[in-house]
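Our preliminary data section would be incomplete without showing what the modeling component actually yields. Below, a chain of 180 amino acids is followed by its predicted structure, encoded as tokens that our downstream tools consume directly.
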Amino acid sequence: TAYGYGIEHSAKAKEFLLKTLPICHELGDFESMVDALNVLGELAVRQGAYDEARRYSREALSLAEKIGSRRDSAYSLTNLGKIAYLRGDYQSARQFYEDALAMVEQRGQAGPISLRLSFLGDTALAMGDYECAKERHQQARARFEEMRVYWGEVTSGQHRGVAYSLNRLGDIALALGDIE
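Predicted structure:
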């Protein structure tokens, strides 16, 4: 995804992605078109262009729903949740993340489930709902741990997920005055 690259590459990536869209449309490759739109949305978020990001993400969601891609719909909903979160619209962010979580849970995808739980935990924390934040980050941590046990190896992504969840649980404990 776009988050794996530095912002200095964003302009070139955007240029290529925009050239991709009409080609994908002509070929009828709507899955690749949805992918490109979602990445364009991520790039726009990184640049702080939230209206543009929302436009790309909504277009991706609409197309993903038309072709019946729940994976891509979940990705688009997550992007929309990030945009709402960054704009301080935590209620909308929560709803987008809940909808995305429901989709990835149906698919049984441990990694995407863990990430959506983390996003929900962060949103609850921003809303001052510490108990919900704690529960969501505990669930995310458990999922990241399960992935490590299931695969029999530790990846950097799993380590980061566990570490992030533990960090956020520490923030919640501090907010609640639970320091022992």
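The mean pLDDT is 86. DSSP finds eight helices and no strands in the chain. Preliminary results of this kind motivate Aim 1 of the renewal.
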